Structure formats: C-alpha cells, structure tokens
Amino acid sequence: MKTTLLIGITVTLAAGLGTAAENPKQTLANAVQQLRERPNYSWTTSFREGDGSPGRLGPLEGKAEKSGLTFLSFAVGDVPVEVFMKGDKGCAKVFEQWQSFDELARTGSTPAAVVRFLRSYQTPAVQAADLAGKAKDLKTQPDGAVEGELTEDAVKELLVLGLRGREGQEPPKTADSKGSVKFWLKDGALTKYEIKLQGKVTVGERTMNVNRTQTVELKAVGATTLALPPEAEQKLM
After folding, report:
1. Domain boundaries, the chain
2. Distance between CA atoms of 41 and 189, rounded to whole angstroms?
3. CATH number of 25-236
4. Across the chain, which distance is largest between two alpha carbons, in Å?
5. Tens of pLDDT, residues 177-220
6. Do you find a cis peptide bond into 59, omega within 30 degrees of 0?
7. What is the pTM of this model?
8. CA 178/CA 149 separation, integer angstroms
9. Long-range contacts of 94-103 (CB under 8 A, 24+ apart)
10. Alpha-helix residue ranges (DSSP H) falling in the chain
C-alpha cells in the first residue's frame, strides 16, 4: 500500500514538473527575470532589411547596469554617437561634444529624430519582457528557442517607433502589419532574441514598405564594466 502510494506521488510530482518545464511562457519569464537581476550586461543590436541589406541604424552596442545606467554606441550615417541614459535623463556625444537630449534636439531635425528614438529606447531586459507579454501562442521550437506571433497592436507600435509627422500632419498610420519574435535560451538564460516586422507605414504623404529584422545578442552578463565620463555625468544631473 505504501509502495503504491509512493509511486502515485512520484508520478504526480513528475507530471507537474514536466508541465512547468514545458510551459514556454513561464520558461521565458524566468529567463528574463534572471537577466534583470544580474548586476550588468552588454549586447549588440543589428538591423536587417528584407532584401538582406543592413538597416539605416546600426549595429548598436549597448551596456547596462542594474542601477539603471545605460550606455549606447552607434552611428547615424557616418557620424558616431555615444549615449548615456539613466531614468528620464540622457545625454549624447556627437562630434566630440556632450549635450543633453534637450540640447541635442534643438540642433536640427535629424538630431531631434535620434532623440525621439533614444527616449523610447528599451534595454533588452525591459524589451524582452514587453515582447514576451505581447506575443501570442508562444511555442518551444526543436532547437529549444521560444517563438510566437506578435499582436497587431504590438507590431503597429514597433513600426512607428520614433516616427513623427511634420507639424499639422496626422500621426503615422500602418497597414498590412504583422510580426513575430523568437527568443534563444541556454541553461535557462536568455542569450538572444529576434523581432521580424512587416507592413506599410504612412507619414504625411509618404508611404514606406517595411520588412525588417532586429536581432539582439546578449554578452558579458555579469562581467560588463561601465565608466561614466565627468562631462557626461554633468549633463545627466
């Protein structure tokens, strides 16, 4: 009787553990939470268009600390840009000069567009959690990755991120939008994720066909160093 009862309990526990292990949403949530709890990490973000060409922005290198301090490095055209952000404060170095986001936005339309992008930027720990919450029917793939379709609202939000029409124009509109997200994990930790977006975006009288893939690869988790220059620190105060 005791043996039968013990076998029954063992089978029940095993079934419960199997269900938890096979729940991709919970597995992903655990991986993202693990990243958020690490003291620091680095990443590389690359953008690729549907024809295989690189995106207009990127590649982007980033570093983040649990305290909220974030560093980004990328180029706009041939102009290198370095950025520090913390909370709602931010500054950028363009042509060897550090400026606050407000100061930079006043220098022209392109810098203002870059500032809009930066103000809406999410670090991987934040973005991965947001994407996981907006993905439908998450499934574990044969390679162990977790993949799902993004909701229509989520795709529209990503397609118009950082875009703004001229004064008096209607907000950007989207059509035929669809997208998906895929997360790669190793030993329960998030190592990479990829966003695929398609759709039409209309800003004023201009309509753009978007077919973009954004890939974020995590590295140096727990082993990233981040130094804030005095000139940048002054602009963050």
Report:
1. 25-236
2. 12
3. 2.50.20.20
4. 81
5. 999 999 999 999 999 999 999 999 988 888 989 999 999 999 99
6. yes
7. 0.85
8. 8
9. 98/229, 98/231, 98/232, 98/234, 98/235, 99/235, 100/235, 103/235
10. 2-21, 24-37, 101-105, 109-119, 124-133, 152-159, 230-236
